[in-house]
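User: We ran a pulldown and think these components assemble together. Before we commit to crystallization trials, I'd like a predicted model of the whole complex to look at. Sequences follow.
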Amino acid sequence: MDWHQLWEIVSTPDNVPIVALIPLLAFYIYLGVKQARANDQLIEQLETDPALAKTHHRKTWPFRPGWQKEIHVWPFLLRVEFLAAIIVTIILMVWSITLNAPLEEPSNPNVTMNPAKAPWYFLGLQEMLVYFDPWIAGVVMPTLIIVGLIIIPYIDTNPLGAGYYTIKQRKFALGTFGFGFLLLWVAMIIIGTFIRGPGWQWFWPGQTWDHSRLIYEVNRDLPDIFGITSNWGKGIFGAAVVGGYFAAGGLALTLLFRRFMAKDFRRMSILQYAMMAGFMLMMIALPLKMLLRLMFHIKYVWITPYFNI
Amino acid sequence: MADEKDLKDVKPPAGGNGDGGNGAGLMKEIRDINADLVTKAKEQVEGLKDPTKTQVFTSIFRHKHDNTPRNRALGVLSNVFLHLHPAKINRDAVRYSYTWGMGGITFYLFIVLTFTGVLLMFYYHPSKVQAFRDVLYLEADVPFGKLLRNMHRWAAHLMVIAVWLHMFRVFLTGSYKKPREFNWTVGVILLVLTLLLSFTGYLLPDDQLGFWAVTVGTNMARATPLLGHEGPLGAQLHMTPYNDIRFGLLGGSIVDANALLRSYIWHCIGIPIVASVFMIVHFWRVRKDGGISGPAPVMLAAEADKQRRG
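Assistant: Here's a predicted model for the assembly, 619 residues in total across the polymer chains.
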């Protein structure tokens, strides 16, 4: 166990935000889940007691007749905002006094940093470079993430859970977002920051960064395993595999969704459902490709003279 | 005629030279002024005892500050900075546990970054010869220079985290749902702009860290489909290192002086202006779409398919 190495990674000034992000996320997930549970309990209670549902004020926080429903922004909101600004300023001041912003040697195109890491918030994408070609990891994937985020409100037709925390009423939406944000984005950033060392090799926390380490790994392409050698054969085979994934995955997803999310399925238009399924399958393809690489040493699935996937 | 009669009663001005000056009259005038001055001074002092009644004050603050509901509302509505807020708000909406305050903190950090950023610009030249030396000079010789740079850097990181947490909260509370769909879109664009702001700033110290981070980052642009020289179908469209999208981003085929200048301009002028415009729309839409989304009364599944507003 190389504690020094571990400390060096954790205490690198630019890694501090990620070290801070982990407890912050944990705290806010706890805060959200706590309120979601309370709301879910209330929903359950109201669903079994329609008489109460008619008179209840529908919140977990106390409300008594005679209390004003609305309060003045001045001072009740503004004092919270003012306090928040002061607290953030103090945190920032203390942080800036105790920890210096990193400054390395002057830029030098002839001396490559190893590992050369992107800023921490892009490390998830850099981690994807291991599994995908740059045009996918660096261009297509960010575009898909942005577009996928933008269309969320237009494909989420569930009218429940607007404006309050709930798990019960939005299992699918929360599960999907949690999968994308926590596992595919934050977890990849954590791997990129704490696990990846020189040569972008995998070093467990506490393992010494060995700059001369070599890993003997032979990655194969999927067509090779099936003995396909011609370019045309590879192209057609890959198209069939990728197309087959989307066709079979789409069918399986539709069967499951119709069965377990019947209401949502009925509410969604064809376009809404197609977009949801398409983005869902592309998102799932990410960890699938990672598994193919990690378990079977497969580099490409689809090889053409123009692009490889 | 009445007018002529009145004119006869008018006394000549004090010390007037019309009818051969009268010393006693002059002294009287001076004594009168003296007395006037004393009363006027007393009035002035009296008036200043309550500054809220002065003309200067009432011209700036256009309403009273007595603790009445009307004045509390006016305090928000008649202030250009505060009038983004409504006068009144749902009593549960001020609970920290609901909003986490992350949107507001993001905006506050943007202000902090603008302030520290402008100060940093005084000490920085975006040229290959100067940039790194300027940072050294800033850290070693400029009073509080190191603190300034640290604050700018850490506020930037904190802003990225705050934006993510804000988005996370908005998702968890389903606040992007009708009628707020479009504001979520604006928010996603602001998220991208925040990351781009941070990324363009990374290169500016012109050290190894920024240089290689930006090299790694922009190398991906080589592989842009159609528009990058190493990307799918790029070669077929005659893309070379000297005309593809990466060349456009860097102003050259390598990360050099032009790339430094470009990221400086994007970082200090271009993106902040664009982000400000989107922020204006974002905040305005929060109000127009019905204010803060909650905490809303819970809805039961049985009520879900009934007619809803919007």
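The longest strand of chain B covers residues 88-90. That may be worth checking against your pulldown data before setting up trials.

User: Thanks, that helps.
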